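It is worth pausing here to work through a concrete case rather than discussing structure prediction in the abstract. The textbook approach is simple: state the sequence, then state the predicted structure, then interpret. We follow exactly that order.
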Amino acid sequence: MLKQSIILAMLCAGLSATPAFAAPYLSASAGAGMPGCWEEVGWNSHFETGLALNGAIGYTFGAKRVELSVGYQKSGYVEFPAHDATIMSCMGNGYYDFDAGSGVVPYVTGGAGVVTVERSFLQEGSTDFAWQVGAGLSVNVTKSLKLDLGYRYLRPEGLECAIDGNPVKWAIHNLLAGFRYQF
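Step two, the predicted structure:
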């Protein structure tokens, strides 16, 4: 956990020390959060598609971008309709934009950070390291405003069953639409 904390602190320090040619931006998106199967020894749980929200502040350096994002997602259990899981994330992300000058810009992204997963029937949560990869398209609406359509694969690591401590394997798929405003 110390190693992940040091990496996240270095990324945040890098975001604050930007050169003069960097252009800051803000982004917000919403979409479908589709958690995969929660797999642990002797038990699997399934989730309904829920709402995923994401906000970020970042810098553009030509074709490269870096950002700090905060996300929220809530999905109900299929097996236990009265209960749900909430995922809060704080991620440092890097992007590469493939700008061919057409106004439609494909991109790839990757990031690392922390997620807090809370399950309502346990009334407790855990905070763990997570990583994500994704791809998408941005479309120029104006010189400063971009429509963003993207996919993210988010994978928490180190999750454990709160009852018996067994390791848990879980991933979340997000389809998001939003806007990015570059200053």
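Step three, interpretation. The radius of gyration is 17 Å. The chain has one domain: 2-11+24-182.
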